[in-house]
Specification:
- The structure is a homodimer.
- The first copy, chain A, contains eleven helices and twelve strands.
- Chain A has three domains: 84 residues, Winged helix-like DNA-binding domain superfamily/Winged helix DNA-binding domain (Arc Repressor Mutant, subunit A), CATH 1.10.10; 98 residues, Periplasmic binding protein-like II (D-Maltodextrin-Binding Protein, domain 2); 102 residues, Periplasmic binding protein-like II (D-Maltodextrin-Binding Protein, domain 2, 3-Layer(aba) Sandwich), CATH 3.40.190.10.
- The model of chain A has no long low-confidence stretch (mean pLDDT 86).
- Chain A is of the alpha/beta class.
- The two termini of chain A are 61 Å apart.
- The structure holds a DNA duplex.
- Chains A, B: Belongs to the LysR transcriptional regulatory family.
- Chains A, B: Keywords: DNA-binding, Transcription, Transcription regulation.
- Chains A, B: It comes from Streptomyces sindenensis.
- Chains A, B: InterPro entries: LysR_HTH_N, LysR_subst-bd, WH-like_DNA-bd_sf, WH_DNA-bd_sf.
- Chains A, B: This is LysR family transcriptional regulator.
Chain lengths: 298, 298
Amino acid sequence: MHFQQLTYFVAVAETRHFTRAAEAVHVSQPSLSQQIRALEAELGADLFSRARGNITLTDAGEALLPLARRILADAETARHEVQELVSLRRGRVRLGATPSLCTGLLPDLLRAFHDRHPGVRLLLEEGGSHDLVRQLARGALDLALVVLPLPAASPALTTVELLREDLVVVSAATEPPPGRDGSIRIADLEGAPLVMFRHGYNLRELTLAACRAEGFEPTFTVEGGEMDAVLGFVRAGLGVAVVPSMVAARAGHDLRRTALAGSGLRRTIALAHRSDVDPPRAARELQRMLLEHRPVPG
Amino acid sequence: MHFQQLTYFVAVAETRHFTRAAEAVHVSQPSLSQQIRALEAELGADLFSRARGNITLTDAGEALLPLARRILADAETARHEVQELVSLRRGRVRLGATPSLCTGLLPDLLRAFHDRHPGVRLLLEEGGSHDLVRQLARGALDLALVVLPLPAASPALTTVELLREDLVVVSAATEPPPGRDGSIRIADLEGAPLVMFRHGYNLRELTLAACRAEGFEPTFTVEGGEMDAVLGFVRAGLGVAVVPSMVAARAGHDLRRTALAGSGLRRTIALAHRSDVDPPRAARELQRMLLEHRPVPG
DNA sequence: TGATCTCCATAGGCAGCACCTATCAGTGAG
DNA sequence: CTCACTGATAGGTGCTGCCTATGGAGATCA
């Protein structure tokens, strides 16, 4: 049984005429006759009674017709469905990102993506880099925005470096500015009241490591919050915090932003996906847009 | 898109393995790979991500899989349905017959047919020969048992003579026997009280024509009934009636049967169907059984 | 690290078949 | 009777699906 044969069969059933059916399906009449014969032979029953000028379906033909129509419709649907995925009129991207990236980088990007491909669903998984890497490996995510270096031994993940972001110190605008001359050194943080993120934040590890490299343990007034909470505590004058510059830029005028002097402190943000399978079409498109619109790199 | 390709696709989706899928569908692995490639090319999207030892469906593959399964299932159903019709495990016979044949010939035949092909529905249309011929021509009947000669100019009907049946006179067992020496002539019916069928019965025309050929008009005590009613009136002693011998034989012991002397009166029963289309398989089978089990012809 | 295995892709050859054009055969109308 | 119409048949051709043989890229293990 071939799709062609079913197409021809339906055409004859609808026109009740071999020659006109052949024209309708753009094939010569002998070819169509032959294929109908072949289908009849395979099924072991005549499908049409070929009365001169009065072609009618036999009972076997009557039984076949609705199924043939449905099969052809399903095939058409299949083509259409796949086409919609390919053309990004439909689809899904499962994107993971660390909390700081969710507030900093993503909103504009996802907005732009959604405007361009409104039919594609965006599923965002907010989590620590460790979790995200595991989810990627399990196939639960298509793409993740992570902070390098990756925590775990990455199981066959490909990472594309996206941008290097300076970390800055934020403090309440109502408090005297920390440091000197509008800039601050890591060493100046010794003894300073710090508002620190919860365990699991990559920023926490990064800041701690920097302080320890300078030979001191930082002092925390409050610790344990998420990004928004930390900024709130800083606004309230509880202390200063080390945050990505992109986050600081969005934090509003009641927060002062002080650059870290010298080599400063940076973090590298990368896009990760499994190496062994290509991400779906929609995820590749998101990746492409991310790389294209990437904020000033370096 | 070919059924083969969908079969291969489903096999790979189920085994997650090209080589094993190829074994499952009894084809060489390169052929299977090639067909999957062809399908992917036609649809314009990869269906599998071919990670070493970890074949998975892409989103396009996921979209296609349920449709592919349904298409294959429908194709299987189509084969099965047609096969059931062919093997007479299912089907339909639309059979027409005159009322006298419905009571005389059909019950045993239909019983035998149903016993042999219990899945075939029997649709019986009881009517006059004229109606039956029209229904046949319209395609509303597959087969009809009619009395020859056919009334209307038969529009391309094929008739197969089935049997010639004597007509006999039935009378109430409680009444004195008509005629002489256990037989009766048509002429003896002159002035005799006759119970006559309604208009449209072929038997009515036959009997009337026979009487007129003898030069008299028969006398009716009651007229207008169907077969059962006529026999009932005869039983009640209202008169005698001319009926087919087959009907008379089944009428019970309270009815006397008297043969018509001389050339007698006969009618020819035939099986009719359209000449331009073959009847459905089930109808042909019924026709075959009818000819095979036909009661003593002639 | 190199040998081996596994597994999918590629290459080349063959055969089947779907398609074509040309023609035949049966039917109905003028 | 002749012609037009319609479906079936015949013969030839090119596409393609199948095969076997082989390549090449991970895994696995000594």
